Structure formats: structure tokens, C-alpha cells
Amino acid sequence: MNSNLSNLLVAFEEYLSVTKALDSLTISSYISDLQQLEIHSKKVLTKLSTTDVLAFLSTFENKRTLNRKLSSINVFFYFCHIQSFTHEKIKIPMAKVPKNLPKYVSNEEILDGINLIDRSNVTGLRDYALILFLYASGCRVSEALSVQRTDIVEGWLKIRFAKGEKERVVPLAPVATQAMERYLSEQTLASPYIWLNYRGEQLSRISAYKIVKKYLGVSPHVLRHSFASSLIIGGADLRVVQELLGHASLETTQIYTHIQKQNLAETMHAYHPLR
Q1: Where are the alpha helices (DSSP H) in 115-245?
Q2: Is the CB of residue 73 less than 8 Å from the CB of residue 34?
Q3: Is the separation of the CB atoms in 217 and 190 below 8 Å?
Q4: pLDDT tens-digit map of 48-85
Q5: Of the CATH numbers 1.10.3210.10, 1.10.340.30, 3.30.70.260, 1.10.443.10, which one belongs to the domain with range 107-269?
Q6: Higher pLDDT residue, 240 or 150?
Q7: 141: which of 47, 126, 174, 220 fits an S-S bond (Cβ 3.0–4.6 Å)?
Q8: Active-site residue set
């Protein structure tokens, strides 16, 4: 807990942590956004009007940044309203942001990339297994790096450090499990975590990014998109994909429906007699 925060923000921070069960990074972002609002308006947050909030938001041109600030502000004023800290319940609509189609790489591209990895040493075995693990599980990179040996039982992965602190369980493809087992059989460093650097410390996000970028030319998050895209192309139900990705809302998962439509169109053009 930040000792420099006002009593109001301390209470809000506790609300986000306990009631909303948000992760620490998200909570820090919310608090930072509100501190920016307070500095910009030069007023106590509970004394702000809609006009004050809009004046602050008008300083941001990027709609994604704007929506993040809006989310923080709307959740804060909802909290103030239910706690009777304010009489007016300020609620500002989100800005409309065009949905970017998720970038993904095909199964063939991933296999071609990782086959270039030299697996004659433990570092190569780790890099090979890590990329397969990310693609096979659909994990966020932060979730993957927090996985411990005891989190994998009989081909099932328990993700305990998921976004919003929500636990989920996903099956792992045998090829990914086998690659990980081979890596761990050569890994002599003592640690409960699976993905380690050469000093035996938990692998960092930057290191994971460099590994995936080196062999596939994309970020680890693209492997998450690739996981979902592969399932959709294979005919998986959207709600199953939602569960595997750990999305709280089906609306978030619906960004992948364009892939489903594209696959249907390609199948139609390839096999229909009137193509």
C-alpha cells in the first residue's frame, strides 16, 4: 500500500484489491490515472464535475489511452457513489475504438521457426519448450513465467497467477509437455519455477520477448492470438476459447470471429462446385 496516497485513494485501492480482485499492476494503473486527474484539475476528486473530467480527458488523443483513463475514472466514481462519498454518479461513455484484427502466425510458421533452435544445450531446450508452451497453452507471458513445476499435473496446467487473480485450468498438448520435460531433465538449477535464466532466476518478460522475437519475429502475445486462432479455425466453440484464454467476457473473445468467417469463406471457395 502506498503511504503517499490520500485516505480516499487508499480506500479505493483496497476496494480494487479485495472486492474487484484486480492484479497489482492494474491497481497501480488505476491509482496513477486518478492522481493525474487530481493534478490536472487541481481539485479534490470528490469535488469534480463532469466538465472537469472531460477537460482532463480532452488532453489525450489516442482512443485506447483515453478509454483506459475512462475506465479508471468510471470505476472510481462508482466506488464513491456506493460509499456515499459523492451525491452525483459520474458515468462517461467509452470512446469508440476501431477493433484491430489480432495478428497471429500459423502452426507451420511456428514449427519452422522453432526447428531452427539448437537443442544441444539447456538454453536451446528452454527456448524451444517455452515457445511451444506459450502456443499450446494460450497463456499471457506473465502467467507463463509464473508457472511452477507443481502447477502441471498429468498434462493439465493450473494458471494461478491469471489476470484479475482468477484461476483456470487448461490442457497442454503432449508435444509441448514432452519438450518441457526434456528441458527440465537437463535443468540442474534449483527453483520451483520452470522458466529460468542462466543464474537460476525466474525468466523476465524482456527475456521471454527476446526469445520469441528471435525465432518467430513476433511478440509472445502473438502466440496467445495464434493459440486462439488455431482453435477457431479448427472449429472450436467460442465459449470454450473464452474459458481457455481466461476472458471474463465473451465480447473480448469475439475479436476472433473474423478468423472463423474467413475460414468458412476459404472452405466454400475451395470445395463448392460453383466456386
Answers
A1: 122-137, 141-145, 174-186, 205-216, 220-233, 238-245
A2: yes
A3: no
A4: 888 888 888 888 877 778 888 888 888 888 888 888 88
A5: 1.10.443.10
A6: 150
A7: 220
A8: 140, 163, 221, 224, 247, 256
